[in-house]
Amino acid sequence: MKLSKRTFLKSLVAVSILAVTGLNSNPVYSSSAEPIKLGFLVKQPEEPWFQTEWAFADKAAQALGNVQIIKIAIPDGEKTLNAIDNLAANGAKGFVICTPDPKLGPAIMAKARAYDLKVIAVDDQFLNAAGEPMTNVPLIMMAASEIGQRQGEELYKEMQNRKWDVKDTAVLAITADELDTARRRTEGSIEALIKAGFPKEKIYKSPTKSNDIPGALDAANSMLVQHPEVKNWLIVGMNDNTVLGGVRATEGQGFKPENVVAIGINGVDAVNELSKPRATGFLGSLLPSPDIHGYRSVELLTKWIREGVEPEKYIAVQDVVFLKRDNFKEELSKKGL
Ligand code: GLA
């Protein structure tokens, strides 16, 4: 009896020592064998895009040695700020983040500064209180305007392949203009369509309330019913889920795949659709480089922490591969995806 009480007390002491050292980020307590802990926070972990970033963050950590990635889903502002508290409590030295809302930028940076955590943004750029981009925070993102332009060019090309009459055709552009990278993609796409010769007045914009398939489906439905005269639709949107919402809406309203062309962006989020036994209105997807975003951001953050080398403030990744039903497996495996 006595013995077990003592053992119990001993273990209590051990637990509290553990808790104290676990919470203390003071370097005095960390031995050189302790790994560098880095957070990798993403707004929509259900998208394969972000799962790919996570997977390549882990690969970078392995290659660098003695680096540990703490992956956290941050669907809203509250979860984001809590995640930063938890990272600090766990002794992390910095984090990579795709924020659920760019306007959280100042709050995120204030917290990070208070804990002395280094920050690299991926995909979506922070905005300050005046709504301007926070260009002082290092950012890795896709070259949004250029990739959007490619979407517009490929849509136009496919319209010509199908020998559609422009008279019967319109563009449904599902927009999300509050998100700068989204606005730049859809504007790039629309510009390219106009440049190729598509009539500007037949490009119909419909804003989505949420960046997922249900939101885009609603946005598309409300536009489709306003234009019963249109026979063929080209669908523009900032990523795969957005144009997929558009495709689902055309199907719901009785359009055949022959009368719909949608091209997504992200690529990794298009695998299910491209694997379907029969083609839908979704022609394919432009795959940028989620692998590079995940890998590079961890590499740069680690170098910043270990060697004090500050990363470049802005890296725009321009590489893009056009995935279609006949090449997507091969192209994804070429990139190790
Ligand atoms: C935004 C979108 C994601 C993905 C990334 C790529 O965050 O919401 O789906 O396209 O950009 O940078």
TrEMBL record:
Residues 37-315 form the Periplasmic binding protein/LacI sugar binding domain. This is L-arabinose-binding periplasmic protein. The keyword Transport applies. GO terms for biological process: L-arabinose transmembrane transport. Pfam families: Peripla_BP_1 (PF00532). The gene is rbsB. Its main location: periplasm. Belongs to the bacterial solute-binding protein 2 family. GO terms for cellular component: outer membrane-bounded periplasmic space.
